[in-house]
């Protein structure tokens, strides 16, 4: 949220829409999670409510403390690189099902990767249309997601062919 608000003020609704076309592939969040997090950020003094509108609409702005925290997180906090994949855990135990069930499971993984590629292609024009910072760096994240999904699909097809 701090990263999105660093580009300018936004309401929770605006942030949710922006989240869906930019960060959902990296870090999916629900509407309730987003509003809960905005409340926590406001309590911590990292964002301010700078405007209120009809039906309880609030516009949030990042504070100097919030911007400092965002910059600290980007440059000083090492990313957690937890590699945990329920999908690969199942692959490890595919010997417990029939070869056809194993191939079907891997085929489904290839299909899911193809759907992810379709989704990324559907938002590509939107991401690439902007000239702001979120669009510029969003292109990098989008390309990472595209390459990852492409690789996952290729791997699943390869693995399906290895099942005897």
TrEMBL record:
Residues 83-160 form the Transcription regulator PadR C-terminal domain. Pfam families: PadR, Vir_act_alpha_C. Transmembrane segments: none annotated. Gene3D superfamilies: 6.10.140.190, Winged helix-like DNA-binding domain superfamily/Winged helix DNA-binding domain (1.10.10.10). Residues 1-71 form the Transcription regulator PadR N-terminal domain. This is Helix-turn-helix transcriptional regulator. It comes from Nonomuraea maheshkhaliensis.
């Amino acid at each position: 949220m701090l990263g999105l608000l660093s580009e300018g003020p936004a309401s929770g609704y605006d942030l949710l829409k922006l989240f869906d076309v930019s960060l959902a592939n990296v870090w999916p969040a629900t509407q309730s999670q987003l509003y809960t997090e905005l409340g926590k950020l406001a309590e911590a003094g990292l964002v301010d409510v700078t405007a209120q509108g009809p039906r309880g609409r609030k516009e949030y702005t990042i504070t100097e403390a919030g911007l400092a925290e965002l910059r600290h997180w980007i440059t000083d906090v090492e990313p957690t690189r937890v590699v945990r994949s329920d999908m690969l855990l199942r692959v490890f135990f595919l010997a417990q099902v029939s070869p056809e069930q194993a191939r079907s499971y891997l085929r489904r993984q290839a299909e899911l990767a193809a759907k992810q590629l379709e989704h990324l292609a559907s938002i590509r024009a939107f991401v690439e249309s902007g000239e702001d910072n979120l669009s510029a760096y969003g292109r990098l994240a989008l390309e990472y997601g595209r390459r990852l999904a492409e690789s996952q699909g290729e791997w699943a097809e390869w693995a399906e062919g290895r099942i005897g």
